[in-house]
Design a protein that fits this description.
heterodimer, A: mainly alpha, two-stranded antiparallel ribbon, 4 strands, about 0% strand, B: alpha/beta, Rossmann fold, 3 domains, six-stranded mixed sheet, 22 strands
């Protein structure tokens, strides 16, 4: 018996010893995104003195807020093991709808009506992916196109403008400031804090991780898999509606295609933050970092005098690097023929 | 054997990982025509040793000799070129390709312009398949084959090269008894051709049936090699764990309590029909039968994963309908599923979160999960079940099979179930954890739990059960009490033979 406990303690010591080295690796793997962020910031700050000025920082965060708000919702969807490629076109829908209803119902009614309509779309996707268990890539790719059609049908293909742009309090969400901070930034941060807590601290958040990590095991533990996925899409749609609100309020007029292509930027931010596309891992905080990295890099490139269009290519390169380093950290090698 | 050169000789192999000496001076030889068992608990170093042999890891010390020539296995391809072939436990076949394509994957015979020479491919493959005496041909899609036949494809692959040594890693884990017979025939053929065979398995019966010698590892250390004929299960187990595995019969001596579960005429389509049994508090009821006999499906029905087509389920005398696992859990039914990694655990999640997953809605402080209460539950069941982990933050996927299974058991014990169903409690688990889990199941019965155990291992069923229900092809053939059951009658019952006919 004493022999056995001896063995056990040896084992435990062995684990401890191997932990310390592993922990260093794990810290690097975990915080790699923060380190990369810091390196970028320092490099750009040296290259361009304007980069870290308060004005510039605010302007980056403000322009990232729309992508950021959508990325918060998509984080839930991705952790639950699914994709949401419909957020860009859904955001066009929200923007057009709220602008149209603004003049018809007044802003106080237009906003809740728009939220309700957008959430219906999210619920529909959630039903298809969660309850009918259809492939989320196919469903949301299809919805990208379908919602675009819906938006154009709704608007008759016309741009949407608010008639009285000066006399409406509606502009506060996109253009106002509170406590010296632009409102879009406040909305983004408050929503991030709220959803971050939901994901990290509540039973629902735990279920999202379980369903994305191993849906079968979650089912075998009595977790309602379909309902959990459904709620993730509902959260995503709510975030999209919020983003649409900010967008509409900022410009008080919009094209039908205002959100086009944003789904990829949103997904890029979520992946940059380190959420696995297989589901089960990621956090809201990391997504926020991912959003900021993307925003600052795009801004830095502009400040360095590169053409705006270069950012599309650079964004892609960064995503590939992020995904590669993530996998490399997991398998401990930059390249490996197995796993 | 002095004049015969060993096909494979390992000398003093050492492999260390940070903080762990995974292999510490392992030496043994495999002779031509020998079936050499390699045994040890999970984590004893068997897989590490095989990876060293296969060129995936480089040893930190020692040497590998093939026919007395020292060799260095620089990578998997080199191991293959030297005639060392592996039949893996987890199959590595492309389901959509044909048998022939799988066998010659990467080295398909070519014609001009790089075109595949299909005629030659089929011909070569059929020649090999003929040797194996299998029922499928070269053009069969691998995905259409049974697991056993897929294993045959892996073996055929090993035969395409002039294999000197073939390593079988837990080949029978998913085979039926009939399929095992075919596999053992193939091994006998390889043996006759003078191939050296390393056979890794946890199953004692097989080891004693087909191997010539047994080498044992424990904690990375070589414990010795013995002739199979001179050994007993007890002596091998003792070498593996340093003590004996108790497999004596174990009927309850305490009074049984009320009927916790009664099942009347339960049927589910073609899966099982007209099932009747009861489980009382304080007893372990074993379900024994072949794969496909309907045992797991009954468990899944009781856990709300399948709707029965007829019959009644009564919990404490009251008829219930169970529509979902959440339903089952709220009625005090717990299921430790057969596929630990696929159904039991979220491998990427930490141990604590896995353990409290079914009750996460009930452990609340305000709107949040009460993490303190979770840690308390984890600590309690870690101590009670002796779960070895560096702490609750460890990912479940990083634990050994035995400790993973204990997490799953702890998950359900912490719910204080009225009925605990355990499907294959010790599949793929080392001997040490196995006996701990057996002991635990007996203790639970003594504490008044109603326990159903489904197992495909006869010694296990005999060891833990108070009563044994023998199933065959979706029906209950017979219920045995622990006093009256014999191995012989049990085998007859699960093979569909009634006792009187056989007698």
């Amino acid at each position: 018996m004493s022999d056995m406990s001896q063995n056990a303690s040896n084992l435990r010591e062995g684990m401890m010893a191997s932990m310390s080295k592993q922990q260093i690796g794990r810290v690097l793997a975990k915080q790699g995104i923060l380190i990369a962020f810091a390196v970028f910031m320092i490099a750009f700050a040296i290259a361009s003195p304007k980069f870290l000025s308060v004005d510039n920082v605010f302007s980056v965060v403000r322009s990232s807020a729309i992508i950021g708000v959508m990325a918060l919702g998509v984080t839930f969807v991705v952790i639950s093991g699914n994709l949401d490629l419909s957020v860009g076109s859904m955001m066009s829908f929200s923007t057009i709808v709220v602008l149209d209803l603004h003049d018809k119902l007044g802003p106080a009614l237009a906003i809740p009506a728009m939220f309700a309509m957008t959430m219906c779309l999210g619920a529909f996707i959630g039903f298809l992916v969660g309850y009918l268990r259809l492939n989320s890539l196919i469903v949301t790719l299809g919805m990208l196109s379908a919602i675009h059609g819906l938006t154009l049908t709704y608007s008759g293909g016309q741009n949407m403008d608010i008639a009285d742009k000066e006399g409406t309090w509606f502009s506060v969400f996109g253009q106002g400031t509170a406590l010296g901070i632009p409102v879009p930034i406040l909305i983004f941060l408050i929503l991030a804090a709220l959803l971050g807590m939901v994901l990290a601290k509540t039973p629902f958040g735990r279920k999202v991780y379980a369903v994305g990590g191993n849906g079968t095991a979650a089912t075998f533990s009595g977790i309602p898999r379909a309902r959990t996925v459904f709620y993730c899409y509902l959260i995503s749609a709510t975030c999209v509606a919020t983003a649409g609100l900010i967008q509409a309020s900022r410009s008080l007029g919009s094209q039908n295609t205002v959100g086009q292509g944003l789904e990829l930027e949103v997904l890029a931010a979520v992946i940059l933050g380190g959420a696995s596309l297989l589901g089960g891992s990621g956090t809201v905080f990391k997504t926020v970092i991912g959003v900021l990295i993307l925003g600052f890099i795009q801004n830095g490139l502009l400040l360095m005098g590169l053409q705006f269009y270069v950012q599309f290519v650079v964004t892609w390169i960064i995503i590939i690097l992020a995904v590669w380093l993530d996998i490399a950290a997991k398998r401990g090698k930059l390249w490996s023929p197995i796993a | 054997m002095t004049d015969v050169k060993p096909v494979l000789r390992l000398e003093d192999i050492v492999k260390t990982f940070p903080g762990v000496r995974a292999l510490d001076g392992v030496s043994f030889s495999v002779f031509p025509g020998e079936v050499h068992a390699l045994m040890g608990e999970n984590g004893a170093g068997k897989s590490t040793l095989m990876k060293v042999l296969g060129g995936i890891y480089q040893p930190d010390g020692g040497a590998i000799f093939m026919e007395d020539q020292q060799v260095v296995m620089a990578g998997p391809l080199e191991a293959k070129a030297k005639g060392v072939m592996f039949i893996h436990q987890e199959l590595s076949l492309a389901a959509e390709l044909s048998v022939a394509e799988n066998i010659y994957l990467g080295e398909l015979p070519r014609k001009s312009f790089g075109r595949v020479d299909w005629a030659k491919l089929t011909e070569q493959t059929d020649a090999i398949l003929k040797k194996l005496n299998v029922s499928f041909d070269a053009k069969t899609r691998v995905g259409d084959l049974s697991i056993a036949n897929q294993q045959m494809v892996e073996i055929a692959r090993a035969l395409t090269v002039d294999a000197k040594a073939v390593i079988f890693d837990e080949p029978t884990a998913s085979l039926t008894d009939a399929e095992k017979v075919v596999l053992f025939d193939v091994i006998a053929d390889l043996k006759r051709d003078g191939v050296g065979i390393i056979y890794i398995s946890h199953r004692m019966e097989e080891i004693f049936k087909i191997t010539d010698r047994i080498s044992v590892l424990r904690d990375g250390q070589y414990q010795g090699t013995v002739n199979t004929a001179d050994s007993t299960e007890e002596s091998i187990t003792q070498m593996m764990i340093g003590r004996k595995l108790d497999l004596s019969r174990n009927a309850s001596h305490h009074e049984l309590g009320d009927v916790a579960l009664e099942v009347r005429g339960l049927s589910c389509g073609k899966l099982y029909q007209d099932i009747n049994f009861e489980v009382r508090r304080g007893e372990v009821v074993g379900f024994y039968g072949l794969v496909g006999a309907g045992r797991t499906e009954i468990a899944e029905t009781l856990f709300g994963l399948r709707e029965p087509s007829a019959g009644q389920i009564l919990l404490e005398g009251e008829e219930v309908r169970i529509h979902s696992p959440a339903d089952a859990i709220s009625r005090g039914i717990s299921l430790v599923p057969e596929d630990r990694k696929g159904q039991g655990l979220v491998l990427g999640m930490n141990c604590r979160d896995n353990m409290t997953l079914p009750q996460v809605d009930d452990l609340k402080a305000g709107p949040f999960v009460a993490e303190g209460a979770e840690v308390a539950i984890f600590d309690q069941y870690r101590d009670r079940l002796d779960i070895r982990t560096p702490g609750w933050r460890a990912q479940a996927g990083n634990l050994s099979g035995g400790n993973q299974q204990k997490i799953v058991i702890g998950k359900w014990l912490s719910m204080h179930p009225n009925l605990l169903i355990v499907d294959e409690p010790t599949r793929g688990i080392d001997v040490g954890s196995k006996s701990e889990i057996h002991k635990l199941l007996r203790e639970l019965a003594a504490q008044g739990y109603a326990v159903m155990v489904i197992s495909s291992e006869m010694p296990e069923v005999l060891h833990v059960s108070d009563r044994i229900i023998a199933m065959y092809s979706g029906r209950v053939m017979r219920t045995f009490t622990s006093e009256e059951v014999t191995e012989d009658s049990l085998i007859k019952a699960i093979s569909g033979l009634s006792d009187d006919k056989a007698a």
